[in-house]
């Protein structure tokens, strides 16, 4: 028997829904949707400042991928991937997810519930601070993400959370600094281009 398609829209913000229903729902165009611990969150399509930072960050990963074939399996944007965390009734869409290995899921039902990005990147925007700094910090740790980067143009800093056992170790990267992750040997992530892009997009 086919599953009935559930439609959600801006008017559903704040409503409760089960993850298994939300995962198969269709969202009204013009907005983005996440399930935040069983509650529907409706987000506006990112503005030009957010997009500029996303492009500047993604270009660096893509350039490294081209010069180091085989180091990265997949670079996925928010509309191209999702994190399903059944224990929290959450479905998240990182701004960037960096997968270093191929998924071993046997079927599509398990694919996003088991394929863990080594690096998840979120770009802080208006209205996302609580989700990015608090909720996703906890959930990405539970899901198995090895590094979580929070890029914040307001403070012109990137907070890097690196997994150490069952907790995060924090490191702040300034606007004029470069971050080197142990997960990608030889990759230097420069903050300058990201925040330059944010300033020019104002």
Write a compact overview of the structure shown.
The protein is built from five helices and 14 strands. With 202 residues, the chain is α+β, with helices and mostly antiparallel strands. The strands form five sheets. The chain has a six-stranded mixed beta sheet, sandwiched between helices.
Strand content: 25-35%
In round numbers, the mean pLDDT is: 91
Order of strands in the sheet with most strands: 5-8-9-10-11-12
Category from helices, strands and their pairing: alpha+beta
* Poorly predicted spans: none
Number of helices: 5
Q: Specify the helix fraction band.
A: 25-40%
Cα separation of the termini? 50 Å
Q: How many beta strands in the DSSP annotation?
A: 14
What global shape is seen? globular
* Main beta sheet: 6 strands, mixed
Give the C-alpha Rg.
17 Å
H-E string: EHEEEHEEEEHEHEEEEEH
Protein topology:
Blueprint: E1 7-8, H1 19-22, E2 26-27, E3 31-36, E4 39-44, H2 48-67, E5 74-77, E6 83-85, E7 90-92, E8 96-99, H3 108-114, E9 119-123, H4 129-143, E10 147-152, E11 157-164, E12 167-174, E13 178-180, E14 188-190, H5 191-200
Parallel strand pairs: 1-2, 9-10
Antiparallel strand pairs: 3-4, 5-8, 6-7, 8-9, 10-11, 11-12, 13-14
Helix pairs in contact: 2-5
